[in-house]
Design a protein that fits this description.
Elements lengths: L5 E3 L17 E3 L6 E3 H28 L19 E3 L5
């Protein structure tokens, strides 16, 4: 199991919070002072990880099907998004 850090979406600095935070505890970026509740930060970080995994899956599927005469990729690539909070891991 790896340790995943939550980073500020704008300056990519690891966030600060109390040990064993509860949903209403504040999480803040020490560099740019962005802050939010722990539950909102976690939800946004999960969305970021899911978005990255979708983009990775699309890229891998497209690459695998590129040379095939029988397989055609018809779904669109996920659009670029910005997130207030991101993860240090890229999932896949």
């Amino acid at each position: 199991m790896t340790n995943t850090q939550i980073l500020c979406g704008s300056c990519k600095c690891p966030v600060q919070t109390v040990a064993n935070p509860k949903a209403n505890d504040q999480v803040s970026c020490p560099r740019c002072n962005r802050s939010d509740r722990f539950d909102k930060v976690m939800n946004t970080a999960k969305e970021h990880l899911l978005h990255h995994m979708q983009r990775s899956l699309h890229a891998r599927s497209t690459k695998a099907a590129h040379a095939s005469k029988f397989v055609k990729i018809t779904f669109q690539k996920p659009v670029n998004r910005s997130f207030r909070w991101v993860t240090s891991d890229k999932g896949i």
